[in-house]
Write a structure and sequence with these properties.
96 residues, mainly alpha
Length: 96
């Protein structure tokens, strides 16, 4: 048998948002029946820092914006050139 749910409180104990009785979670902070509508929980559930530096985050995650250079081996270019020349020669020789 399913465990009965506790009714939603009138106001969210986490953020103070007014709640309707049929709400299963707070539309403001997300506190819900699964968390037990913990009244002793702090309002800082996300753990966000107030001094978050967005520019520093972007630099750390993505670097300076230039993709890293990856040099290809010279043989790749020579093989590609040889294939193109061979294809062109086969095309010309078939015409004769």
């Amino acid at each position: 048998m399913a465990k009965p749910r506790k009714p939603a409180p009138e106001t969210c104990p986490i953020c103070g948002e007014d709640l309707e009785p049929h709400y299963l979670s707070c539309p403001n902070c997300g506190s819900c029946h699964a968390t037990g509508w913990k009244s002793d929980a702090s309002g800082d559930g996300l753990g966000l820092d107030e001094d978050f530096d967005y520019d520093e985050f972007v630099e750390r995650e993505f670097g300076n914006g230039a993709p890293p250079r990856r040099g290809r081996a010279a043989w790749v270019y020579w093989v590609a050139l040889a294939l193109l020349v061979g294809y062109a020669l086969s095309f010309v020789l078939r015409r004769w």
